[in-house]
Amino acid sequence: MASKLRPSPILEVERKFHRLAVPTLSRSGGLPAFKSLRSCPPKKIHDVYFDRDDILYNTGTWLRRRNGAWEAKIQKGGDLTNSRFEELTDPRKIAACIHRITGKDMGEDRDFGLAKMAEFTTMRETWVADGEFHIVRDRMDFGHEVGEVELQVEAGIATESEKRKIMAQMDEKIENFMNKYAWAFTPGRPVGKLVAYFEAKKRTPAGGNPSGSMAAVD
């Protein structure tokens, strides 16, 4: 019997924006008009984030269970607005990643030896512009709103050097896209959802620097 194919790691590059400059996106909502625009069905997302003593946060790695499915993201560069990640969804690869960082060899049934640090629900609207750019507007149940423009590609067997090159090209494409359609995005400092969550809860990570990798997550 053929073995089940494991999900390939995903390279993800995103740029956050403060909020949309229009009530909703339409193909001809500004000049220049989008070449194409497709609206996706809205989603309700329930996220639970895990860490222990900020050990993942301090290494630029974070873990969540989104609608019951595990996702780990390893930051590969960028800052709180312009972020680059490798994403893992295979629990075995996630367990190996967490083991390398924490030394804990535990599976998903024990939350990889980590503890819950945040939990909230997001209402997400998504549009696909010009055939490949995902424009997202997230509204969280604790009153925060933030958006992002995102590109994703499968990493396959790319080397670390190749991954960095690919993500730099993806980032440049997003920057050019947002500059071209600047009418759609409100200027201003975007605040990541985890930073906003901790501000709402009057808590910051133990490291005391919420502008780092935690600020960049989606």
Task: Give your account of this protein's structure.
A hairpin with a 4-residue loop joins strand 9 and strand 10. This protein is an alpha+beta fold. The radius of gyration is 18 Å and the shape is globular. The protein has one domain (about 10-215): Beta Barrel (Hypothetical Protein Pfu-838710-001), CATH 2.40.320. The protein has 4 helices and 11 strands. This is CYTH-like domain-containing protein. GO terms for molecular function: magnesium ion binding; thiamine triphosphate phosphatase activity.
How many domains is the backbone divided into? 1
**Order of adjacent strands in the largest pleated sheet:** 1-7-6-5-4-8-9-10
Residue stretches low in confidence (pLDDT < 50, at least 5 long) are 207-214
- Radius of gyration using CA atoms only: 18 Å
Helix-strand pattern: EEEEEEEHEEEHEHH
User: Structural class of the helix and strand makeup?
Assistant: alpha+beta
The CATH superfamily is Hypothetical Protein Pfu-838710-001
Shape: globular
Separation of the first and last Cα atoms: 38 Å
CATH class: Mainly Beta
**What is the averaged pLDDT score?**
88
| Strand coverage percent | 35-45%
InterPro entries: CYTH-like_dom_sf, THTPA, ThTPase_euk
Protein name: CYTH-like domain-containing protein
Organism: Echria macrotheca
GO molecular function: magnesium ion binding; thiamine triphosphate phosphatase activity
